[in-house]
Structure formats: structure tokens, C-alpha cells
Amino acid sequence: MRGIAPSAEQRVLKRWARALDEAGSTDLAALKARSVEAHALRQKIDAFLNAADGALALAEGGAGDVPKPLHCDWAFRPGLWSGPVRPHGIAGVVTGVGLGGDTTLFHDCPQSEITFRQIRNARTVDGAAPFAVRLDVLAFRGSFLSLVVDLPDAACNGLQKRHIIRQTLSVEAEAPLEMFARLNIKHGPNTEQIVQEFEPEDGIIEVEYDLAYTDLDAQRIERMWADVIFEGPKMNQVTVREMTFVRHPRADM
What pTM, to 2 d.p., does this model score? Predict the structure, then answer.
């Protein structure tokens, strides 16, 4: 496929530069039509930039597939750690705001003084996430802040009580705080919840959820999601540099 000739690119740039200059004097009907066209064009450009930036991040950052244990039959890294999201940062984050398509931030603070930023991880070993999530919390009159990841349908397909779900995390915190990881599985009218407490430390934290100790009805599984909960995050900066999930059967005894 032949690329756009430089003269065509120049014509496009000149056209939009002229539209900018004339925005204040253009009649409303024409201005509205140009605005609709500009928004449609921006959606295409943003979609391309998301795809291109993600591919470049993987190539430049040395990041690859999620490391898989023996007999692993499903692996996943949420979009927030896999590729760039827009906007890259939000100040005064309200509860329930979506981040990166499959991740949502929740808190119970009546007045948010929380800032979210997606940052690049430094070049590291193969298999590491190209992006990280940084949360800056100032005054906080609530009790918890959480990142909730909706796991894809593939995580539920064929899920049995013989499976173990392993969540891998890399978390840094400026000041000590209580942190919990929780796996939630909705099956019929019930929801299984497995909670694990963990502490930030150098390197990777692995949290395992053994489904053998649940009352899971494998025939009625509807959806699965995971929470990372930070309790009392006042005056703290928390950086989640990695988050992955894998599924594998328990070893036969």
C-alpha cells in the first residue's frame, strides 16, 4: 500500500490550519459541520495512537507475554498495564471512574483529593509490564481506595474448583498502609470472595486463590473480577508497577 504523498499531507495540515484561523468568523452551521468532522478524525487518530504507542512500548520496553507456570491454561495482563490509556492522568478522581477499559477506581471519600497517572515503567526484564499506575492521595476522609479489574470471559470458561488463580503484583508505597487482594466469582445468586492481605516489598508479590476451598458452582459461573484494596491511603503515593493473572490446575496429590 502506497503512503500519503507529502503534498497531500501538507494540504490536510493547511486545511485544518485555515479552519482554525477562520473558527471565529465561520457561520454556525459550517462550524458545526467542521466540528463533527474534526471529532470523527480525532477518534481515528486517537485509536491509531493507542495501538501504535502500545506496540512501541512493548518493543522498546522489552515487555513480552505474561509469564506462565506449567500447565497454565489462561493468562492476562489488564489494559492499564499493557498499553497507553487516554487520558494519561486525572485529578480529583471520582469514585467509579473507568481506567483503561477493564479497570475501575472506587473509593468512599466524600471529597476526592486523588490523582491518577499512568506512567512508563523503566526498561526491565522480558515479560514485565510496559506501563504502571500511580495514585497520589492527599487529604482522605474515607476508609478505602480500590482498583477493580474485570476479568475477561476466558477466565471463566472451563473454570473448576481444581483451579488455582495466581495474581502477580508489584506495588510501591511511600508510607505503610494495609493492602488486600480479593478475587470475586459470581455464580448464580451467590458470589465467592477470597481475600488475601499482602505488603509492598521489593520485586514481585504472588497471591494465590485456591478454588478448592470455595463453594463454587462451576455450572453457573457468570463473571469474575479482582480488587486491590488500599485501606487508609491518606497522604500517600502508591505505584502499582505490575499486575497479571494466570490460571492453572492444582497438582494432583
Answer: 0.75
Closest CA to 128 of 170, 90, 191, 92: 170
Residues 24-53: tens digit of each pLDDT: 787 888 878 888 887 777 767 765 665 565
Q: For the chain, what's the residue count? A: 253
pLDDT bin (cut points 50, 70, 90) of residue 63 is: very low
Instruction: Grade residue 2 by pLDDT with cuts at 50, 70 and 90.
Output: low
- Where do the domains of the chain lie, and which CATH numbers do they carry? 6-61 (no CATH), 74-249 (2.60.120.260)
- Three-state DSSP class for 210? strand
Q: How far apart are CA 241 and CA 211, in angstroms?
A: 27
CA-CA distances (angstroms) from residue 248 to 39, 68, 159, 170?
45, 9, 10, 21
Do residues 78 and 100 touch, judged by C-beta distance below 8 A? yes
| Per-residue three-class SS string for 86-130 | CCCEEECCCCCEEECCCEEEEECCCCCCEEEEEEECCCCCCCCCC
- Burial status of residue 106 (CB atoms within 10 A of its CB: 0-12, 13-18, 19 or more): middle
Residue type at 103 in one-letter notation: T
Under the banding of pLDDT at 50, 70 and 90, the label for residue 64 is low
Question: At 166, is the secondary structure helix, strand, or coil?
Answer: strand
DSSP string covering 214-253, please?
S---GGGEEEEEEEEEEES-TTEEEEEEEEEEEEEEPPP-
- Secondary structure percentages of the chain, helix, strand, coil, to 5: 25, 40, 35
Contact 134, 91 (CB under 8 A): no
